[in-house]
Structure formats: C-alpha cells, structure tokens
Amino acid sequence: MKKLKTWELERKSVEQFKNASKQPIVIVLDNIRSLNNIGSVFRTADAFLVKSIFLTGFTAIPPHKDIHKTALGATESVEWKYFKKGTEAVKELKNENYKVYSVEQTDKSIPLSGFYPDGESSIALVFGNEVKGVSQEIIEISSGCIEIPQFGTKHSFNIAVSAGIVLWDLYTKRKTAPL
Predict the structure, then answer these.
(1) For residue 10, how far is the Cα from the chain centroid?
(2) Would you say the pTM of this structure is higher than 0.85?
(3) 154 vs 83 pLDDT, higher one
(4) Who contacts 141 (Cβ-Cβ below 8 Å, separation ≥6)?
(5) Which residue ranges make up each domain of the chain?
(6) pLDDT band, very low/low/confident/very high, at 169 (cuts 50, 70, 90)
(7) How far apart are CA 24 and CA 12, in angstroms?
C-alpha cells in the first residue's frame, strides 16, 4: 500500500466541477458565526458534489480570507447564494420542489440512521447557528428534522462536523440504494 500523490487523485478542475453532475442537495447555512465552519462546509460540499450552498442572515459570504483558509478554493467551485433571512431561502427551495430538512434536535426529529430520502428527490439541509441551532421559525416551515444521534454529555456537534456526517450518510445511502 502506498499513499497517493496529489496528481494521482484525479481531482476535477473548477471548470470540470462546474460541469459535473451534482447531487440534488442544497445546504443552507443560517446565521453561522464561524468563518472556519463556513469554509469547511464549502470544502465538504465540493467533496460530495453538492449542488449549492445558501448563506443566510449574518453568515459571512466569500470572498473572505478566513473562509478561504478552510475552503481551500471550494468557494470558487461550489455555487452559492445569499439571503437576508433563512426563511426566504427555505421558501425559495420549497417553491423549487425541494424537501427541506433542518438538522436539529426536536421532539419529532428523525434519527439520521433512519432517514432514507427518495433517491430522486431534491433535498435541502438547514444547519443553524453554533449556539442557538436552527430557528423555530425555520423548523416550522421545514419538511422535517433530522437528528444525528449522540451519546455523550454535549449533545451537539460543530456545524462543519455535522455537515460532513449528514452528507456522507446521504451520499452512501443514495449510492447503495436499490434501483
């Protein structure tokens, strides 16, 4: 076994990425305060060929040096759009027939392990503020909520970690779903 060199990874150019078939997933980052989290989500979205990221509220937008530090250029490959309010982003997505799921702990959350989206459905995933989570206003207009089961004392993940867990789970479920 040998570690692959960068040139052996068959990475897409930005142009190839933009022309590639994308997963029908939009990520909504609502009122995210950490620029490193924002950059990390861009990088993860690039890795999983996510269609787009919607940035809302006081979430910072590219270009910004602290976003760039963790995004490593993914702000150039992944499409993004800004909305003043998270509810505006969710309403637009629903008008475009997306099923919108907030990643949040609620009394009716679906555990991620039990969440199986229709393989053909376009979905949006809302990730909320690092301290307050997804707002109740957005939860009320979401199609549902997904919860990542946790077993320690904190019962919260970093936004970038949550996005990575959920995207990997959805990616593997869609790639292994029976036809």
Answers:
(1) 24
(2) yes
(3) 83
(4) 87, 90, 91, 94, 100
(5) 20-176
(6) very high
(7) 19
